[in-house]
Amino acid sequence: MEAVLSRKEQIERTATALFKTKGFSATSMRDLANALGIEAASIYSHIKSKEEILQRVCFRMAQEFFDALDTAESINGTATERLQRAIAAHVQVLTKNTAASAVFLHEWRHLSEPYLTEYLSLRDRYEGRFREVIREGISNGEFSVPDEKFATLMIFSGLNWIHTWYKPDGKMNPEEIAENLSAMLLTGLNNTQHNTSVNPIHLNTPN
Amino acid sequence: MEAVLSRKEQIERTATALFKTKGFSATSMRDLANALGIEAASIYSHIKSKEEILQRVCFRMAQEFFDALDTAESINGTATERLQRAIAAHVQVLTKNTAASAVFLHEWRHLSEPYLTEYLSLRDRYEGRFREVIREGISNGEFSVPDEKFATLMIFSGLNWIHTWYKPDGKMNPEEIAENLSAMLLTGLNNTQHNTSVNPIHLNTPN
DNA sequence: CCTACCGATCGGTAGG
DNA sequence: CCTACCGATCGGTAGG
């Protein structure tokens, strides 16, 4: 886990943490330099601009979400199973780097064009794939829900709220979070009761 | 609805819209002045500082949320009914002013002390009251959920995601959003199936 | 509500 | 990676 980071990676990681805590706009290049122990001007040997850091974080995270979803969807199954896997994949990416996730979720609006438009379209495509699974589940009778779009919204709300409370040393690990989330979401979605197969997990305390 | 606004209210409302779109830090007093059609210096005849506007918005919204919850909880009933009413109250406040809600939910971190601490403690108390209803529902058997804290988190995630997609002229009005949200959340919470009593509502299209 | 202005800080560059 | 510095802009004040 403690791999050697290039200076550029160090800058990106430190900036991400600052962007998360203070926000992109309120973080100055001098704040960043200070956290790195160098002068502000020196940062520019490694990156072109402050916004470039934000771009890299946002699009790297987008890539990670897509990759995880691709892997999750490469396995066949019922709509329920596929949704569960998609949720688990999303939670994994989210919890693996909470700072980058927070930046991805909240600081993207400081992207300038054409990055902003591209970011928005990536998000749309990603959400569309979840909506597709739900649509299938509705049409084959697995899910019973008044509005497919609303259901997708609910899933993403639960998913993207995680970074606000998740602590790596908390009582739930990412797998348990995903299972609990799926359980809570699916029992609301499921028409017939395979509640027992969704098994919400109880707490083990690792610390 | 189109009441006469004092200059101070005008400033607050315009600032709120800008804070929502650009964020607190990225909004300058010159941006605000420009939107109002006056000079930046003139704003200071009405307010003491940029942060004062943020403080007013955050604590006014906190007050509105508490007032709505007080009213909702003044009516007795089962835990299910009380949770439904609390959710509806929250949705009402949220949708009544989406800009102020967005600022309340995302810009509070730019509050300085002691306001930050007070804000955080207000939120904690508010969430605690939802947690209390859930706790009661669990202990009297209405709800079946592995973790009370997790359930509360899920409710707030669904609740506080609304402002990102809610459109006043969309196909769901606040009451319908609340009912759909309750339905989706409660059927996940409910042990016995009073699904039919929760009645998720279908779309009427006002526009 | 304006003009005129303040010191501080911003993102970023030149040149080594 | 640093020193030295740039023009622009920041939140805010004085005085009317």
TrEMBL record, chains A, B:
The lineage of its organism: Bacteria, Pseudomonadati, Bacteroidota, Cytophagia, Cytophagales. This is TetR/AcrR family transcriptional regulator. InterPro entries: Homeodomain-like_sf, HTH-type_Tx_Regulator, HTH_TetR, KstR2_TetR_C, Tet_transcr_reg_TetR-rel_C_sf. It comes from the Bacteria. It comes from Pontibacter aydingkolensis. Residues 28-47 bind DNA. Pfam families: TetR_C_24 (PF17932), TetR_N (PF00440). PROSITE patterns: HTH_TETR_2. The keyword Glycoprotein does not apply. Keywords: DNA-binding. Residues 5-65 form the HTH tetR-type domain.
